[in-house]
UniProtKB/TrEMBL annotation:
The lineage of its organism: Bacteria, Pseudomonadati, Pseudomonadota, Alphaproteobacteria, Rhodobacterales. GO terms for molecular function: 5'-deoxynucleotidase activity; metal ion binding. GO terms for cellular component: cytoplasm. The keyword Metal-binding applies. InterPro entries: HD_domain (IPR006674), YfbR/HDDC2 (IPR039356). It comes from Paragemmobacter kunshanensis. Residues 16-183 form the HD domain. This is HD domain-containing protein. It comes from the Bacteria. Keywords: Hydrolase, Metal-binding.
C-alpha cells in the first residue's frame, strides 16, 4: 500500500513540474521575460505570507497558501488566459470552465484519494471565491500581476492597451473584495501610471 501511495504522490509531483513550462503574459518585475505559472504560484504563496496582515480577521493564511500553490495547476492542460487579452473574457466562459474542471479531475486524480479530495476541495473553494480565505487568495492572484506591471513600466497593460477603467473593472473589484486596503494602496500607485 505504501509503495502505491508514494507512486501516486510522485506521479502528481512530476506532473505538477509541467507548470514550470506554462508561460504567462505577465513578465518578471524587471520585465526581462515572461514568468511561468510555477513561478507565479510560488510568488503568490510568498505574497500571502508577507501580506497576511491585509486579510480579513479569521482568514487562515496557511489555507490561503495551500490554495495558491494549487490554484493554477489546471493551466498544465488549459494554459494561461491573460485577463486583459481578447480571450480574457473567455476565461469565465462555460467552455473554459469545463476545460479547467476536466484538468482538475485529471491532475488531482493522480493523487491518493485522501489527498485528491483535499486538494480538489481547496481548488474548488478558490474557484468559487465565496469564503474569506478564497476571497483573499483571489485578491492576491489579481494584485501580483498589477505589481509586476507597475515594476516593469507597464508590462501587459501596454501589450493589451489597458485603461484605468478596465483595470478597475477586471481587477480592482476582485482585489477590493478580499483585501480592500490593499487595493486602495495599489490603485494609488496605478493612478501614477495611467495619468
Amino acid at each position: 500500500m505504501t509503495d502505491d501511495r508514494l507512486a501516486a504522490q510522485f506521479a502528481f509531483l512530476n506532473e505538477a513540474d509541467r507548470l514550470k513550462s506554462v508561460l504567462r503574459a505577465t513578465t518578471l518585475c524587471d520585465g526581462s521575460r515572461p514568468e511561468n505559472s510555477g513561478e507565479h504560484s510560488w510568488h503568490l504563496a510568498l505574497y500571502a505570507l508577507t501580506l497576511a496582515d491585509q486579510a480579513e480577521p479569521g482568514v487562515d493564511i496557511n489555507r490561503v497558501i495551500r490554495m495558491l500553490l494549487l490554484h493554477d495547476l489546471v493551466e498544465i492542460d488549459v494554459g494561461d488566459v491573460p485577463i486583459h487579452s481578447a480571450n480574457g473574457a473567455a476565461h469565465a466562459s462555460a467552455a473554459t470552465m469545463q476545460a479547467e474542471q476536466r484538468a482538475a479531475d485529471r491532475i488531482f486524480g493522480l493523487l491518493p484519494p485522501d489527498l485528491r479530495d483535499s486538494f480538489r476541495a481547496l481548488w474548488d473553494e478558490f474557484e468559487a471565491a465565496e469564503t474569506p480565505d478564497a476571497r483573499f487568495a483571489k485578491s492576491l492572484d489579481r494584485v501580483q500581476p498589477v505589481m509586476a506591471n507597475l515594476q516593469s513600466g507597464g508590462g501587459t497593460w501596454i501589450t493589451y492597451d489597458v485603461t484605468l477603467d478596465q483595470l478597475d473593472t477586471r481587477v480592482g473589484s476582485k482585489i477590493a473584495r478580499g483585501a480592500p486596503r490593499l487595493w486602495t494602496w495599489v490603485r494609488e500607485r496605478a493612478l501614477g501610471y495611467f495619468s
